[in-house]
Amino acid sequence: MGNKTTFDFEANIDGALEDDQLRKNLRKAMDILVDKRRTVFPDSTYLEQLRSAGNAVKRRALKQLPQLLEQLEANCTKNGIQVHWAEDTNEANRIVLDIMQRHDAPAIVKGKSMVSEEMHLNHFLDEQGIEAIETDLGEFIIQLNHETPSHIIVPAIHKNKEEVAAIFHEKIPDTPYTENVEELTAIARRVLRKRFAAAKVGLSGVNFAIAETGTLLLVENEGNGRMCTTVPEVHVAVMGLEKVIEKLADVPPLLRLLTGSATGQTITTYVNMITSPRRPGEKDGPKEVHLVILDNGRSRMLADPELRQTLLCIRCGTCLNHCPVYVRIGGHAYGHVYPGPIGKILTPQMEGLDQAGVLATASSLCGACGEVCPVKIPIPDLIRRLRNESYDQDGSAVVEGGGYKKNLAETLVWKGWELANRSPLLNEMGTRLAGKVGKRMPRVGPLKKWTRVRTSPRVAIASLHERARNEGVSDE
């Protein structure tokens, strides 16, 4: 994923649509997630109030983001947390590597973190001879199978229990084949407990960072995140700079929205609030806590009043669950770390429209993603904005790579269309011509792609004016 030289979105889509088992797995999983979310938010009025509150909290944080980041750094430092700033993923990877090398750590145990996926941290550390061990059950499954996450919240959502059973049997030595879910979970726990105990360094993501107190908040269901942040001597947390919020009092509405939207729970099993390394007299916890704050294009998004709404995202994944495109093709087809509707607006801004702008075309603009987003990101509007900038004609595009789809042929077509619609004579001539040859128009090039899955438009043989004149009705 994220490999710019081999990314072929159309081929990925075709492959996913031809995989019947993948589509069955996705359909079943998505129906469950959608139903659970509907159950946990039965009162639509209350949900709208909660969404408005969440939107207000995040908007307020973005409005004063530079100040909040400085406040977060100051309070984290005062609490004993070491703060590092990374302009891009290369710098973030080097920071993590430096911490690993200073502690002579041959391996790192990882809780779930989309930012570490964005960094391609596992691949980077592997090149340095350091083993990265995923401990989230879903991440553990796909790592065994040499895959990347298919979903922001449920990484192995594209696998059924039979496929997981086969992976465990083939990849974990001396493991019998079993489709019993409890037994599969116990196998993973047995393998991972040993790794937790041996690791010197653990890594986690950050769901929210509270500037007021210098606190890192993590939510999870399995306990692996708490093991990664408590058992090893060193804890490294990585986060995008948009994760900061102003006050501890801002947490409840966001937490309620996140857990309800992501997994259909009132609250997750574990809510971890980390404010410092182990203090004198405490019996557990890391001796060092490091916070790596990553930019990677987020500052550019923040600078644009419309595009900054991308940074409202709390990574709940519910836009994926309700997207008719994602449900049919899964996350791997997108070819990048962030799939689904949020990926369509986030990835092109990070990597450039010329590299990932095609993702914005994978939308029916049905509006489902915007309707369910817990913080009211207008995802369809942002998709249209990116599509427009892909065809930028006058150099006004804000996103890097804007205008990459602009070409002479299309420019001439639109100029011709403009001219024809400004001249009544040309318009009438063009309408007559279209009426005569419309049914015999060759289905080639873009027309063939369009009509392959759509009904061809039918042009009337006679225009309304002609029909009126034939009936003896005056044009005046």
SSE layout and pairing:
Blueprint: H1 9-17, H2 20-40, H3 44-63, H4 65-79, E1 81-86, H5 89-102, E2 107-110, H6 114-119, H7 121-127, E3 131-134, H8 137-144, H9 161-171, H10 181-198, E4 201-204, E5 208-210, E6 215-220, H11 224-230, E7 234-240, E8 244-245, H12 251-263, E9 270-274, E10 288-294, H13 298-303, H14 318-321, H15 326-329, H16 340-351, H17 353-356, H18 368-372, H19 379-390, H20 408-422, H21 424-437, H22 445-452, H23 464-470
Parallel strand pairs: 1-10, 2-3, 2-4, 4-7, 5-8, 7-10
Antiparallel strand pairs: 5-6, 6-9
Helix pairs in contact: 2-12, 3-12, 16-19, 20-21
* Ends apart, CA distance between termini: 62 Å
Number of domains: 3
Using only CA atoms, what is the Rg? 26 Å
- Taking pLDDT < 50 over at least 5 consecutive residues as the criterion, the unreliable ranges are 1-5
Overall outline: elongated
Mean pLDDT: 92
Largest sheet: 6 strands, parallel
Strand numbers in spatial order across the main sheet: 1-10-7-4-2-3
Question: Care to count the β-strands?
Answer: 10
Helical fraction equals 40-55%
> What structural class do helix, strand and pairing data support?
alpha/beta
Strand fraction: 5-15%
Number of helices: 23
What does this structure look like?
The protein is of the alpha/beta class. It has three domains: 1-40 and 317-400, no CATH class; 76-299, no CATH class; 408-470, no CATH class. It contains 23 helices and ten strands. It has helices at residues 9-17, 20-40, 44-63, 65-79, 89-102, 114-119, 121-127, 137-144, 161-171, 181-198, 224-230, 251-263, 298-303, 318-321, 326-329, 340-351, 353-356, 368-372, 379-390, 408-422, 424-437, 445-452, 464-470; strands at residues 81-86, 107-110, 131-134, 201-204, 208-210, 215-220, 234-240, 244-245, 270-274, 288-294. The strands form two sheets. It has a six-stranded parallel beta sheet, with helices on both faces. The termini are far apart. Residues 1-5 have low confidence and may be disordered.
